[in-house]
Fold:
Amino acid sequence: MCGSAKFLSMLYLAVCLNATAAIKAIKFGKLWDGHRVIANAVVIVEDDKIRSVAANGAIPAGVETIDLSRYTGIPGMIDMHTHVTYYWGGEPGTTPRRQAPRHVAVTVVLSQKNGMKALEAGATTLRDLNAQGGADVDLRDLINMGELVGPRLFVSTGGLHGLPKIPDMNDKVAEQIKQTKAVIAAGADWVKVFGSSGGFDNVTGDQTVSYEEMKAIVDTAHAEGHKVAIHSYGPAGARDAIRAGCDTLEHATDMDDATIAELVRKKIFYVPTIDHNQYYVENANEVYKFPAGAKENLNDYIRRNYATAQKAYKAGARMLVGSDAVYNGFGLNMRELTWFVKMGMTPEQAMQTATVLPAEALGMEKSLGSVAPGYFADIVAVQGDPLADVQVAIKNVRWVMKGGSVVVDKTRTAGVRHD
Structure:
């Protein structure tokens, strides 16, 4: 094919593709785009991206128009700590942690239900930190292929643990490097490290991965272009995670002033997951059947977790929403915002911990977390003003778009029409 013929062919293909692009116009009474409020906003969406955002913007003739002028638009929210493959259907005689084993394919299909509950809570993106058998990778990929409906996923596969059976530190470091490369090769977006004990009704927080191991994991992951999240319920693991240069610190209770100062200096994101243990308190007896004394231990941990997070916030730490949602906890993904406002954040500052800041932590600040041209069309409509009352974003989600497709619609009277 000669050059001019090839050019004309490519031009024809481009015109055809453009002609078939799916374009929608969305009208909001007001829109908080992640940074500012726009009254009478019109958002034009083309395929999976936002084309334009403007007050009283013009709507092209014949374009599908979604009238949400009774609602406030916000960016799709981001939950930075979940376990979407932890599924429990509430079958009689079972608890979330006492279920019959499932094939990984069954886990993937069932996990979609957790993902849908997260979408209904306005969480269009989840960072998922620990899954077995590659279920999180498979679920992510099937969602990205359009074969399943679900939130945008950033996954870690199985988290890395301490190596108590290996006594020599050089051997431990070598093995952690090997395991880090293995999880990345298996499809992990992030590397998760269990740097301490702690989880469910266990709130001990004893360090289980040494500084030398953490540093080797972080350096290896960073060299491969991946980020690291380190779990530490207690202060020692948190201190060494920060020294090692992790990208996000999970849970981290009882940190002293020097550790917090280093967290702030290094601009490491802090995901305290305070509400997660409140969820366990609420489900301790009937759902989990925790042993006697568990609720008291959990409540004590919540108190200390909140005090640490408040101290870190006042010191200038960059905080992120992480629900640590498991099993029947999906749908409660944004309750952490309540704790953030309680510790002194304005509702807008709290909202940014679920939008623009986690997008930055994910390295997606030019694609997620805001309603702006060129970004993914991940948009939520809420009833009320979340900048006046953050409970609006937690309890009043009415409509959700993810990647240009409407995945949740509880508006009923807010119709779709063609102008």
User: Anything to note?
Assistant: The chain has two domains: 22-76+370-418, 77-361. The two ends are 43 Å apart (CA to CA). Confidence is low (pLDDT under 50) at residues 1-20, 414-419. Residues 294-315 form the longest helix (22 residues).
